[in-house]
């Protein structure tokens, strides 16, 4: 069955005949990749996932191809964090502070592993955080990542302005010449990206894009909605560029969490909080950092799919 669909791929549940093991099979149409100049993205995604070995990162098990498609066999998971947040909202509930801290500690630890290997994810959001069978989170979708250590971003030219290059791809091989295309999801993009602000150079903090998105996620998990919302992507970009957001005063965000959100959503990437700052922050007091987080047996209870979600799934092709 179909598990999802991306901008240039689809994901289906597949089972190996020899072992019966299930995998999420990412299927990418070759002619579409060539037409959209995405071959470099796929190669970097494969190479990066091959290099990552962590319980908080979805495992790449195998790759192969045929005449029409490229295939990636990924560790099968059980839904994403965004669906869980949506179910809570439809039920008129918010995630507890305890559960937010529990989940976000795993996101921080997985992200630290990725950053330590010189990779910036560049599309951190709840949709790209999947649940394993035990209720732990795993980071996935490295199709927009940037290899900071090699100075390349998903196959794009590495010679552009560093601030924009953190999340905007400069394609000098395009038949139309130089062009810029935003990488990421507007609601989780930092202001220096939306403004393509070369004065807010992120050279001293190459992972600032991911750290900003972490702050947006912390806000969303506590409040139940994103800090930047608008009917169109353009209006979202305008709000982000102008830093038009407010911290709720209804008690949904504890003081220590509010402080961490403000530090992660610092409009200046050079002074934005890093993951070492996050680990040492009061919000995460008492957390025992390390891969042992995935050994915890007290995962938060998740809401099952509700009727509206089941109806949408039944109508999808």
UniProtKB/TrEMBL annotation:
<feature type="region of interest" description="Disordered">
    <location>
        <begin position="298"/>
        <end position="317"/>
    </location>
</feature>
<dbReference type="GO" id="GO:0004674">
    <property type="term" value="F:protein serine/threonine kinase activity"/>
</dbReference>
<dbReference type="InterPro" id="IPR000719">
    <property type="entry name" value="Prot_kinase_dom"/>
</dbReference>
<dbReference type="GO" id="GO:0035556">
    <property type="term" value="P:intracellular signal transduction"/>
</dbReference>
<protein>
    <recommendedName>
        <fullName>non-specific serine/threonine protein kinase</fullName>
        <ecNumber>2.7.11.1</ecNumber>
    </recommendedName>
</protein>
<dbReference type="Pfam" id="PF00069">
    <property type="entry name" value="Pkinase"/>
</dbReference>
<keyword id="KW-0808">Transferase</keyword>
<keyword id="KW-0418">Kinase</keyword>
<keyword id="KW-0723">Serine/threonine-protein kinase</keyword>
<dbReference type="InterPro" id="IPR008271">
    <property type="entry name" value="Ser/Thr_kinase_AS"/>
</dbReference>
<comment type="similarity">
    <text>Belongs to the protein kinase superfamily. AGC Ser/Thr protein kinase family. PDPK1 subfamily.</text>
</comment>
<dbReference type="InterPro" id="IPR011009">
    <property type="entry name" value="Kinase-like_dom_sf"/>
</dbReference>
<dbReference type="GO" id="GO:0007010">
    <property type="term" value="P:cytoskeleton organization"/>
</dbReference>
<keyword id="KW-0067">ATP-binding</keyword>
<dbReference type="InterPro" id="IPR017441">
    <property type="entry name" value="Protein_kinase_ATP_BS"/>
</dbReference>
<feature type="region of interest" description="Disordered">
    <location>
        <begin position="159"/>
        <end position="182"/>
    </location>
</feature>
<keyword id="KW-0547">Nucleotide-binding</keyword>
<feature type="domain" description="Protein kinase">
    <location>
        <begin position="1"/>
        <end position="284"/>
    </location>
</feature>
<feature type="binding site">
    <location>
        <position position="26"/>
    </location>
    <ligand>
        <name>ATP</name>
    </ligand>
</feature>
<dbReference type="GO" id="GO:0005524">
    <property type="term" value="F:ATP binding"/>
</dbReference>
<dbReference type="InterPro" id="IPR050236">
    <property type="entry name" value="Ser_Thr_kinase_AGC"/>
</dbReference>
<keyword id="KW-0597">Phosphoprotein</keyword>
